[in-house]
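Re: the multi-chain job from yesterday

Posting the exact lines I submitted so nobody has to dig through the queue logs.
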Amino acid sequence: MTSDRIWASLFERLKTTTGADDKKLLFLAALPVSLRDFRENQTVLRDGEEPSECCLIVDGFCVRSKTIPDGRRQILSIHIPGDLPNLQNLHYATVDHDLVALSDCTLAFIGHRALKELIRERPGVGEMFWRDTLVDAAISREWLVNVGQRSTYNRLAHLIVELRERLRLVGRVIDNTFAIPLTQEQLGEAMGVTSVHTNRILRDLRIDGVLELQRGTVHILNEHKLQELAQFDGRYLHLSPSS
Amino acid sequence: MTSDRIWASLFERLKTTTGADDKKLLFLAALPVSLRDFRENQTVLRDGEEPSECCLIVDGFCVRSKTIPDGRRQILSIHIPGDLPNLQNLHYATVDHDLVALSDCTLAFIGHRALKELIRERPGVGEMFWRDTLVDAAISREWLVNVGQRSTYNRLAHLIVELRERLRLVGRVIDNTFAIPLTQEQLGEAMGVTSVHTNRILRDLRIDGVLELQRGTVHILNEHKLQELAQFDGRYLHLSPSS
DNA sequence: GGGTGATCATAACAAATGTTAAGTCATGGG
DNA sequence: CCCATGACTTAACATTTGTTATGATCACCC
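And the result, structure tokens for all chains:
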């Protein structure tokens, strides 16, 4: 795979969110990476590990998740191409959750040492990544609002709109149709409800003509209704460098 | 107020979590700050603002919260002395939630400009703060698990144990008794349930001899039962510099 | 020292969500 | 081609949680 394809999604995103110039990005592209493929459901990082690399999602979907002693599992975030789901391990050793491939995935691993060196030489790169982790935190807080306060019906609409906005940034939305390769059980784990209830809500959304979800692909049927349900205010994504 | 008292809680925490040496902390203590007092329920930062300072909680409790259009409110985090609840605004302009004083509070405001200068001169200080925001994010993820997967009964136990661990770090736990100055309605907003239901759960915990909450003060009655309910694994707080 | 408003407490009932169970539908492997 | 498997779908029923309402209690102010 060419270096271009490895970095493309991340660079697209960073250009929009931080206004990064090509020079800064060239330093990144010069970092040594090692590519590794993962299959659907394969664990990338396990709770308790102490990785010596950060990973960049080149292609495919991953989730962070946490399993509590009684076996229940919460999906903490959905990660898409261009995401750096464990940048935090640059500053503390232990992963405190799992990172699992949702679909077949290609990941690029970047050694902490090389990354830290680059950041030391180019503080601007560090600021960019710091910001990235801060937006990641803002997304977690919005998920907390979603799970804590919105009805499951609205909650699912919000989750889908957020994912669409993020996918759009990296060119993964075509004809208002995009991938969300979660099973109903996994969607439930992201929303804090059971798979049975997720099924009910999906049925309602289908019957109400809002959207359809088939084999991991979302089709929006009524954009206006969807917006109304999601009450989506994307400011928390901080898409513009100045916000 | 002396500079010592202003920085005491933050320094205590940073020494434990990052192993920061006195030298690094002296640079911090040299930063110009402006003190401001807030009364109970006063808003410190409002959703949408673009502050030019970060604030340090010197004394008292604050919460971050987010209100959705239908009026429901989610408390995103509880902040205690030593916390820096809006460090994120160093790297993006807009606050995407409210910051509200839970009790009468003293806050120290530190200008972005001075802070950024210090970080440029002392990258180690920047790394320490970056880490701090990463732990803040890890706490948000744990709250997501709490709200999404634990029963309300266990959820409240977990919230209380987490708060106790964090308060202990800054010397605010005496005789296993500590402050949690949230009304039942606010506790409900933190857990994603109504105040009526919060009241039910508190009654159950009282009847079961686990703990009592009176006028904002927690008394642990049965430590063993509390642990059992909370299933608390504090690794996500990353209290040790090496984890 | 009596009003006033917030908070706490509790009950009855309604609505949302979980549990269990069963059957259907796709898909890939032998 | 058929079987095995996982995912999806639905229903009946149980449990949790929300809603609404009503008093009780507490803190504070005039």
